[in-house]
Design a protein that fits this description.
Number of strands: 9
Largest sheet: 9 strands, antiparallel
Helix content: 10-25%
GO biological process, one term: pyridoxine biosynthetic process
Keywords: Flavoprotein, FMN, Oxidoreductase
Number of helices: 5
Pfam families: PNP_phzG_C, PNPOx_N
Radius of gyration: 22 Å
GO molecular function: FMN binding; pyridoxamine phosphate oxidase activity
Shape: globular
Order of helices and strands: HEEEEHEEHHHEEE
Pathway: Cofactor metabolism; pyridoxal 5'-phosphate salvage; pyridoxal 5'-phosphate from pyridoxine 5'-phosphate: step 1/1; Cofactor metabolism; pyridoxal 5'-phosphate salvage; pyridoxal 5'-phosphate from pyridoxamine 5'-phosphate: step 1/1
Length: about 230
């Protein structure tokens, strides 16, 4: 059976969320980006933009979409997570690496992508690179900063596993509470911790009118530095 839309079928086109009651897509007018504004290192440039996002009260600028793909099927999955660290070694998020979908994806394909969207500034940052697990010692440093409930929750949740009902999850939490009753120092679970994405490509995107956005892509030059290219929008 043909998948083409037949003449008598209704074709639904979503109206963009414009401004001033317009049905036209919103125009991006808050800034521009030129190569002379960019630092030679993308992690430094990311830090500049991130600090600006914080100063301008962007809502939770650390929120990022983590995309992974399973091999050999090639099926892609994505989810919103929090960035917790960013330096010259890469971008770090924390999660369950025993039962989660992302854990299965990374086990078969250690490549990932991160996408930040800062609406208030009409800016986007994209990162692509290889993944590596952080050591328990490295993960413990961040784990110790979490509230007790979140630390116990990491022990309790079999992330992405099927639950019969909410009571089952609450029972797992109660079990973790009994396990560490009276203890403030709780070890990081062996199945939980940090994942570092080492960037091979970083793109900085600034919205412009008429969808003629400014885009600059950093790629490694093979000599320890970075090459910067302007991309067509």
């Amino acid at each position: 059976m043909s998948s083409q839309i037949q003449p008598n079928q209704e074709r639904r086109i979503l109206n963009p969320s414009g401004t001033n009651n317009s049905t036209q897509a919103q125009q991006y007018t808050k800034g521009e980006l030129n190569i002379d504004q960019l630092d030679a290192d993308p992690t430094t440039q990311f830090d500049i933009w991130f600090q600006h996002a914080q100063k301008e009260n962007v809502h939770q600028p650390e929120t990022v979409t983590l995309s992974t793909a399973e091999l050999p099927s090639g099926r892609v999955s994505a989810r919103m997570v929090y960035l917790k660290e960013a330096d010259k070694n890469g971008f770090v998020i924390y999660s369950n690496w025993g039962t989660s979908r992302k854990a299965a994806d990374v086990a078969s394909n250690p490549q990932a992508a991160l996408t930040f969207w800062w609406h208030e500034l009409e800016r986007q940052v994209r990162v692509e690179g290889s993944c590596s697990r952080m050591t328990d010692e490295e993960s413990q440093v961040y784990y110790d900063t979490r509230i007790r409930g979140s630390r116990l929750g990491a022990w309790a949740s079999r992330q992405s596993s099927v639950l019969t009902n909410r009571a089952e999850l609450e029972g797992q939490v109660a079990e973790a509470e009994r396990k560490f009753e009276g203890r403030e120092e709780i070890p990081v679970p062996e199945f939980w911790g940090g994942l570092r994405v080492r960037p091979e490509m970083v793109e900085f995107w600034q919205g412009r009118p008429s969808r003629l956005h400014d885009r600059f892509r950093y790629t490694r030059d093979g000599e320890g530095g970075w090459k910067i290219d302007r991309l067509s929008p």
